[in-house]
Design a protein that fits this description.
about 220 residues, mainly alpha, two-stranded antiparallel sheet, globular
């Protein structure tokens, strides 16, 4: 079935039924097992950083790496200062990533080929729901996954939405002492619901994101 309007996107985002999934809980248990294993070893994160860059189409360009480094520095500083994720901080990260001095939410419609992201008229109310249902919820691995899925689906900025979604999820993971996301390809990171795309199931998107965390551990342990 094809997604034909913004309401279907919002329904997708607000589906939290996967939390009762046995398979999702098994993936979380695997992450905890890998984290315990990694804590017993001394490993370099250089390999993980390399894999994270080569599986991103945008980060393969040198000019984008400059913004990526600056945004990562901001994240580590924010974690050290116990800064909470909020709209202002997300906008600041997008500004650093895109190297645009001042960033506001997009004021027009945005497309990926023939596919359209959430209508601009729905963005502000969707962000309010995002703050309530995701940002303001207790820390957890699933919260980190939701941060990524919501941001990449809302596509609130004119540019750099994928990188922003990833680095905000990384922030949530790192401040809980988990490794950051590492998708196996740019294709596997596509979890956004868009008008004109096939209907998505939230559980499948959560599964993809959890597997990106698992992959980060397996790379670091290899």
């Amino acid at each position: 079935m094809e997604i034909t309007n913004s309401q279907q996107i919002l329904t997708y985002l607000n589906d939290f039924s996967y939390r009762d999934s046995k398979y999702i809980q098994e993936l979380i248990q695997e992450i905890e097992k890998l984290r315990a294993e990694l804590s017993q070893k001394t490993v370099s994160m250089v390999k993980l950083s390399h894999y994270r860059i080569i599986t991103s189409n945008t980060l393969k360009r040198k000019e984008n790496l400059i913004g990526w480094d600056k945004a990562n520095q901001r994240v580590f500083q924010s974690i050290a200062n116990i800064q909470k994720i909020n709209k202002e901080e997300v906008s600041m990260l997008n500004s650093l990533l895109t190297q645009v001095e001042s960033v506001e939410f997009r004021d027009d419609e945005i497309y990926s080929g023939p596919l359209q992201y959430l209508h601009r008229s729905e963005l502000d109310s969707a962000w309010t729901a995002f703050e309530k249902e995701v940002i303001d919820t207790p820390h957890s691995i699933l919260r980190s996954c939701e941060l990524y899925i919501w941001l990449v689906t809302l596509h609130p900025f004119s540019n750099g939405n994928g990188r922003t979604a990833r680095i905000v999820a990384d922030w949530s993971l790192l401040e809980q002492s988990y490794l950051p996301l590492c998708f196996d390809s740019s294709v596997s990171s596509h979890v956004a619901a868009t008008i004109g795309s096939d209907e998505r199931r939230k559980e499948q998107s959560i599964t993809k994101t959890l597997n990106a965390i698992i992959r980060a551990y397996k790379i670091s342990l290899s």
